[in-house]
Amino acid sequence: MRIVFMGTPDFAVPSLKLLLEQQYNVVAVVTQPDRPKGRKKTLTPPPVKEAALSFNLPVLQPERMRNADAVAAIAELKPDLIVTAAYGQILPKALLDIPRLGCINVHGSLLPKYRGGAPIQRSIINGESSTGVTIMYMAEGLDTGDMISVVELPITDEDTSGTMFEKLSLAGAELLRETLPSIMSGEAKAIPQQHEQATYAPNLTREDELIDWAKSAREVFNQVRGLSPMAGAFTYLNGEVFKIWACAEAESQTPIRSAAPGAVLAADSQGIHVQTGDGVLLLKEIQPAGKRVMNAAEWLKGARLETDTLLGAEVRHDG
């Protein structure tokens, strides 16, 4: 049985390792090209490539999977099955038609909810209490294929995108272990999705990272968790980007006093208390422009933050 594995970020690594640990015949790994990373823009291989090379597996990195040459290269491998996990590109029909057992995807949501590229982040940002992993047959649409198996996990207030990525990546690998024998034997049951219940999770943009203080404390709390530790949520302080990496809803939802959304109500050993459209948010871990991530109380020892300072006002320079 010949398997081609396709994946890119850390989320996909446990699934690749599971295939190898279970002694499946992975004939090649397909991943995204190396990309510049960090302030120095150092060309960096994706985590799946690093894992594949550590096992001496052949690695293909086509820029566009819809390219005929890329499809031909995979066809030459004669895969019986293609397994994908967070690969990052929509696969063309010409590729989906190659393996006799089809193409399956380890997707980080409870389909048909949160189809798309950022299901884990969006589920947290939207305040979901649970999420999960769906293994599905791939079709031409965006995560529209028939489902094979599902596992559900809770999302707690302590979870961030980082913790849920790790939990779901491991759960996905375990679900893959349980599901593959039925796929190999041809006994897997394909369950059509209820397309009318579909919701979408498009990739995050800069606008998704900007905090709107008119929202409730709970909504901003979820936004911060959903963007940590990847991009991070941000506001503006004195016209400069001010990132927030960790926060909490104030124990009392009653404002210390009447103030506009985004106003600093107090700055003390607990952190920075900020008025929202509904309730008070306590900023606990922050990153001022040009500085490292630090505890808010630590930053306040050397920074002067006046009460009534308004977060969120960007200084624009015309001309």
TrEMBL record:
It catalyses: L-methionyl-tRNA(fMet) + (6R)-10-formyltetrahydrofolate = N-formyl-L-methionyl-tRNA(fMet) + (6S)-5,6,7,8-tetrahydrofolate + H(+). Gene3D superfamilies: 3.40.50.12230. It holds the Pfam family Formyl_trans_N. Its EC number is 2.1.2.9. One of its GO terms (molecular function) is methionyl-tRNA formyltransferase activity. It is an enzyme of class 2 (transferase). The keyword Transferase applies. Residues 204-303 form the Formyl transferase C-terminal domain. InterPro entries: Fmt, Formyl_trans_C, Formyl_transf_N, Formyl_transf_N_sf, Formyl_transferase-like_C_sf, GART_AS, Met-tRNA-FMT_C, Met-tRNA-FMT_N. Residues 1-178 form the Formyl transferase N-terminal domain. One of its GO terms (cellular component) is cytosol. (6S)-5,6,7,8-tetrahydrofolate binds at residues 109-112. Keywords: Protein biosynthesis, Transferase. Belongs to the Fmt family. Attaches a formyl group to the free amino group of methionyl-tRNA(fMet). The formyl group appears to play a dual role in the initiator identity of N-formylmethionyl-tRNA by promoting its recognition by IF2 and preventing the misappropriation of this tRNA by the elongation apparatus. This is Methionyl-tRNA formyltransferase.
